[in-house]
Structures are given as C-alpha cells and as structure tokens.
Amino acid sequence: MSIDAILERAVNGERLSMEDAVALYESDEVEKMGEAANQVMLKWHPDPVATFVIGRNVNYTNFCDTYCRFCAFYRAPGHKEGYVLNNEEIFKKIEETLEVGGTEILMQGGTNPDLPLSYYTNLLKEIKERYNIWMHSFSPAEVWKIAEVSNMSVEDVLRELHEAGLDSMPGGGAEILTEETRLRVSRLKVTWEQWIEAMKATKRVGMHGTATMVIGFGESFEERALHLQRVRDAQDETECFTAFISWLLQPENTGMYKTKKLTPRDYLKNVAISRLFLDNIANFQSSWVTMGPEIGKMSLQYGCNDFGSTMMEENVVSAAGATHKVNTNLTLQLIREAGKIPAQRDTGYNILKVYHEDETADKDFVMQN
C-alpha cells in the first residue's frame, strides 16, 4: 500500500489518524517520510536555522525504587553505590556551565523515597539565590514520588517547586504511554495517565514541559500510534509541550540486554512520523546523545529543527552504553554540515545568538561523565 496519500494530507495540513500512523510505521519508505516531515518542519521554521541549547545534565541522585528493567543507572535505596550529590557539588556544576555560556540545568535523578519536598525546594531556592540559570528539572516520575512522600497532590508539589525556582519540567519517563508496555518494562513506574496528568499540571501552575518517546521495547506499531495520540490530545487541551524528543532504547548493560536493538533507520522513521502526526508541537529535538552526531545531523532533514542540548554531562544513557560526546564547536560544525545556520537558544526557544559563517564559540568545554 502506498503511503503517498497519507504524506500528501499531512503536508497539506490535514490531521493524521492513528490508522495513518500505523500505516506509516508498517512502510519502509523512510526517505519519503523524511521529505514530507521536512516540509512540515519548514512550515513551522522557514528559516534555514537549527537551534541548540548549552546545558548540563545533573543527575543529583541515583537512588531509585522504581527498578525499570531498561535502566543501568539506578541503585536501590541503601545500596553502597548509591549517592545524593551535596549542594556544593551541584553549585560547582552550575558554575562550570555558566562559564561556557550555558543557560539550562536539566536536573534529574531516581525516584528517591528518602528525599522530602523540602529537599527540593531548599535546593532550588539556594540555586536561584546564587545563579541566573534556567532550571529545567525533575521528571513526572520524580514529582509523583515527591507527592507520595509528602502526601500532597502533584499539582501542589509542582506549584511549590515552581515558587522555589523550578522553571520547566522535562518529559522523561514517558517511554511508551501504554500500560501494556509499561507493565512489562517498568511495572512500578507512574502510569501513562499519571505522566500526562503531571504534564498538564505543569501548565496549570505556570510552567511548560517537553514530551518524549522511547521505542524499542518490543511495543506494537499500534502502541506507538497511541502514544503519539495521547501526546497530541494533551497538547490540544493544555499546550503544555514546547518540544518533542524521541530516541531508541539502549538495552546494553540493562535487564533488557537480550532485546534486539533498533537501527538508526528506525529512529529516523520515528522522528518523521512523529513530526507528521504531532501537528501541534513546534519544536522537535534531535537525540544525538543516543544516536551519535552523524545520525543527529541527519535528523535535521527528517523533521527536527533543533539539535538539543550540548549536555556537558550525562550519566543515565551512558550507563546503558551510549557515550556520544559533543561540545559547542562540534555542534556548530555538525549543524553547518547539515546545511543549516546554527543558533544558540534558551529553554523557551528564544534565539540568543546566531553563529555566522566560520564563527566559533568563545568558550568551549570537554564533555565529561
């Protein structure tokens, strides 16, 4: 069956159905999908610019009582290899980020049952007293754990975090938003309804979030389509998402090491289908951390308008075997090789600086784990 009619409708601005999405997943005409997704992206972003943010991923704790089968990062509460970073260590990481022109801290950890809400609010207040930096931090699963520990609603927790200094919430932990897959790979994690509710609540308390998707758990094409439908419905209702980011499961070193690893082609197909289906989200981030710089570069022709974060530090995905490293000047080079003009943005997708031909970053960094 030809997918031409589906692609034509998407390019013309018609909303695709879940059945359309399944038909695209069943097709191997990935280049055609990429071309259509690129046309849709250009309607949102007609200028030949690809953006990126200079940020750092601070994993403040690895204690976690969720025990996802696909995670190599967590340690059970009380484990000798578990940690909670002290505030001074976090401050030092923020200072290093600011020194190279960074604007964003993506602070995430495990669902630590020993950290009360006051830990987070006090930390955020101390950060904001010292530094002018955007805190794009804590995933829905972490916020639900704080709510459980504190016997509060998720909305009230998010309101207090926002008042203390949280600026926006990343959409980590979505994986696949169906109970079928979640019960198989992360039985104790928040349900898909709880993930969606946290994102909606984020908007109600005056913030925004991002939407994510991870494929490769053995989920069906129908489940992938349902995931996209649930993200699109939430965005229709609340406009809570500024961006969409997808990547592949990295099964190495995890409890899912026997799972067949998907290919870069699968990733590019998912990026394209997501861009065609999610007609209400403006920004799509490349996932070079998991896919590598070259595939990250290619994704800018498959619907992505953004190269994501330079991510000075990253421990979760690298624990599972993906260790791609990119600094600011290499980011500029890769964006230019993709035929785009690189521009640094903030977390709200406001352009801070356009890098003209041959211009490099004044300060750069060597990525570290």
Automatic annotation (TrEMBL):
Its EC number is 1.21.98.1. Transmembrane segments: none annotated. One of its GO terms (molecular function) is 4 iron, 4 sulfur cluster binding. The keyword Nuclease does not apply. One of its GO terms (biological process) is menaquinone biosynthetic process. S-adenosyl-L-methionine binds at F70, E175. Keywords: 4Fe-4S, Iron, Iron-sulfur, Menaquinone biosynthesis, Metal-binding, Oxidoreductase, S-adenosyl-L-methionine. (3R)-3-methyl-D-ornithine binds at S139, S287, S309. InterPro entries: Aldolase_TIM, CofH/MnqC-like_C, Cyclic_DHFL_synthase_mqnC, Elp3/MiaA/NifB-like_rSAM, F420, FO_synthase_su2, rSAM, rSAM_sf. It comes from the Bacteria. [4Fe-4S] cluster binds at C64, C68, C71. SUPFAM superfamilies: Radical SAM enzymes. Its cofactor is [4Fe-4S] cluster. Residues 50-294 form the Radical SAM core domain. Binds 1 [4Fe-4S] cluster. The cluster is coordinated with 3 cysteines and an exchangeable S-adenosyl-L-methionine. Pathway: Quinol/quinone metabolism; menaquinone biosynthesis. It is an enzyme of class 1 (oxidoreductase). It catalyses: dehypoxanthine futalosine + S-adenosyl-L-methionine = cyclic dehypoxanthinylfutalosinate + 5'-deoxyadenosine + L-methionine + H(+). The keyword Iron-sulfur applies. Radical SAM enzyme that catalyzes the cyclization of dehypoxanthine futalosine (DHFL) into cyclic dehypoxanthine futalosine (CDHFL), a step in the biosynthesis of menaquinone (MK, vitamin K2). Belongs to the radical SAM superfamily. MqnC family. HAMAP family: MqnC (MF_00992). This is Cyclic dehypoxanthine futalosine synthase. It comes from Halalkalibacter hemicellulosilyticusJCM 9152. The lineage of its organism: Bacteria, Bacillati, Bacillota, Bacilli, Bacillales.
